[in-house]
Amino acid sequence: MSILTLILTGCAKTDGGRDFSGDGDSTAEISAAQRAILEREQIGFDEYKEAWANYTRCTEDAGYRITEVALSPTDSRRYHGMIEPVPGQKQDTQRELACAPDELSYVEEEYMRQNPPFIDPVLLAEIFARLERAGISFTGNETKIADFFPNVSDENRISAITEIITDTTREMFPDAPFVSVGF
């Protein structure tokens, strides 16, 4: 069983339209379905779910399934899940690895750009309480993980806060397939 991780590549607008490749190559191979979603003016949760469904089908076609799917409590926007081989089916690992960029990654990036992440409010309240008990400063205005790290060179602070976020999330959301604390 492996953890589903999506490596997002850049999705920047260029003068002539959107660059779907992240490397300046606007002819990148992405599915027609993902391209059609990206052509919409607004990318909301419905568009994200549509891209996720396409990604799931692609993964299944490659001989894998995504289980334990849950909305991430640390960003309240993205699905997380576990990828595992389907017994009795031939696995095409190269195809499975291509599914995220082909079907989901660019929609997910645009969705997150248009709909900023926020930590689940109940989880956030508990994180604040634990930070206070640990004597770690915070403003109380934090709503996303990156807000806790105004100085990204303070590795001790990053480690301590990341540990509190991870432990709290695991305790409060034991069915979450994994905890994402990237910022």
In brief:
The chain is of the alpha+beta class and 183 residues long. The protein is 43% helix and 11% strand.
Describe the structure.
The protein has about 180 residues and is of the alpha+beta class. It folds into 2 domains: about 1-115, no CATH class; about 120-170, no CATH class. Helix content is about 45%, strand content about 10%. The strands form 2 sheets. A 3-stranded antiparallel sheet has the order 1-5-4, covered by helices on one side. The longest helix has 22 residues, at about 95-115. The model is unreliable at about 1-25 (pLDDT under 50).
Count the beta strands: 5
- The number of helices is 5
Q: Biggest β-sheet: count, sense, barrel?
A: 3 strands, antiparallel
Mean pLDDT: 87
Would you list the SSEs in sequence order as H and E?
A: EEEHHEEHHH
Overall number of domains = 2
Physical arrangement of strands within the biggest beta sheet: 1-5-4
Distance between the termini: 25 Å
Shape: globular
Fraction of residues in H or I helices: 40-55%
